[in-house]
Design brief:
Blueprint: E1 4-6, H1 9-17, E2 22-24, E3 31-35, H2 39-49, E4 58-60, H3 67-70, H4 76-85, E5 90-95, H5 102-105, E6 110-114, H6 119-127, E7 132-134, H7 148-155, E8 161-163, E9 175-178, E10 185-188, H8 194-200, E11 231-235, E12 248-252, E13 262-265, H9 269-285, E14 290-294, H10 302-313
Parallel strand pairs: 1-8, 2-8, 4-6, 5-9, 11-14, 12-13, 12-14
Antiparallel strand pairs: 2-3, 3-7, 4-7, 5-6, 9-10
Helix pairs in contact: 1-6
The structure holds threonylcarbamoyladenylate and magnesium ion (MG).
Binding site for L-threonine: 28, 60, 114, 134, 174
Protein name: Threonylcarbamoyl-AMP synthase
Binding site for ATP: 51, 55, 110, 136, 144, 188, 226
Length: 315
């Protein structure tokens, strides 16, 4: 299959409305979209990524009003999160409407819904005839794609169209909070921090620690994730101090050990998040053997970075 790369939201939306799979930019990471009413498109998303069928897709919308077509119930806690964080890097899990196909939700009675805060994503989604089911636009298990070249490297020949936009500003996938139960529970950390969710709904429960992911509420959490080919070594913040080694790289907030050959020194946790996945991919292109990753403090987006690093190191 020939993969078309375009900057035109019209062209991209036309392909999607014809039942094709289209990658598109968002502020978190690039998504791999298909029309939620088109079974073939949904199947093609799973096939292109090599994604297990029990791992559900997030439904993307351009306006909060569309939620009532997807969810059967919007509890008060969800209303509060929608009011404060939509559009943005937050996915809400709600009880699904009967019209949402089981292929989207992996057979679950709930559905993930996100309204991206990204002008290109927003324009694209507006032109799509129906809401768009989209996982991250990467081969399953690989780091998510934060620029169109990464999407193209992973998926060329497997998807019809890549909508080219700027590099994702946040760089980590959305925060997922399950509002289908009371109190709401964080399932995946992201740029909308636990602290900011609790500011509006103080009883919001934290995400279960990484060790309990064998029986996760969010099916995706049990699969390996975010892994570059290089070995990941976690450093600092309770982990050992890294000494460095030949053909290694360092990403973190403080000064690297002496012996590393490639360095991403980040001034803030936000910059760390923004750079993380593209740095992993760069290291792979340069055949780096070990990436030393400094664990950031466990607050704000630091929680999301720690989560991705722990799971990248697990493989
Ligand atoms: O930022 C993001 O969320 C990106 C962009 C493209 O929106 N998407 C993304 O999708 O990261 P994906 O498929 O890579 O991750 C979605 C996660 C998976 O872990 C999946 O198991 C979980 O969301 N999920 C989806 N629907 C769910 C549901 N009904 N209940 C629990 N978890 C769900
Ligand atoms: Mg993903």
């Amino acid at each position: 299959m020939q993969t078309i790369v375009t900057e035109s939201v019209d062209v991209a939306a036309r392909w999607l409305n014809r039942g094709e799979v289209v990658a598109f930019p968002t502020e978190t990471v690039y998504g791999l979209g298909g029309d939620i009413t088109n079974e073939k498109a949904l199947e093609n998303i799973f096939a292109a990524k090599g994604r297990p069928g029990d791992n559900p897709l997030i439904v993307h919308i351009h306006a909060p009003e569309q939620i009532q077509d997807i969810a059967s119930e919007i509890p008060p806690t969800a209303e509060i999160f929608i009011q404060h964080f939509f559009p943005g890097p937050l996915t809400l899990i709600l009880k699904k409407n009967t019209t949402v196909p089981n292929l989207v939700t992996g057979g679950l009675p709930t559905v993930g819904i996100r309204c991206p805060a990204h002008p290109v994503a927003n324009e694209f989604l507006k032109r799509c005839n129906h809401p768009v089911a989209a996982p991250s636009a990467n081969i399953s298990g690989r780091p998510s794609s934060t620029d169109w070249q990464a999407v193209y490297d992973d998926l060329k020949g497997k998807v019809r169209c890549v909508l080219k936009g700027p590099q994702s500003t946040i760089g980590l996938e959305s925060t997922i909070v399950d509002c289908s139960d009371n109190p709401p529970r964080l399932l995946r950390s992201g740029a909308v921090s636990l602290e900011s969710l609790r500011k509006y709904v103080p009883e919001t429960l934290p995400a279960a620690p990484a060790e309990t992911h064998q029986q996760p509420k969010s099916p995706g959490l049990k699969y390996p994730h975010y892994s570059p080919s290089a070995q990941i070594e976690l450093c600092g913040g309770g982990y050992s101090d890294c000494t460095g080694s030949a053909n290694s790289a360092w990403i973190g907030l403080s000064s690297p050990p002496e012996k590393v050959s490639k360095i991403a020194l980040c001034k803030t946790p936000e910059e760390y998040a923004h750079k993380l996945f593209s740095f992993f991919r760069e290291c792979d292109r340069e055949h780096i053997a070990i990436i030393y990753c400094e664990m950031p403090p466990e607050k704000g987006i630091g929680r999301a970075i720690r989560d991705r690093l722990q799971r990248a190191a697990e493989k």
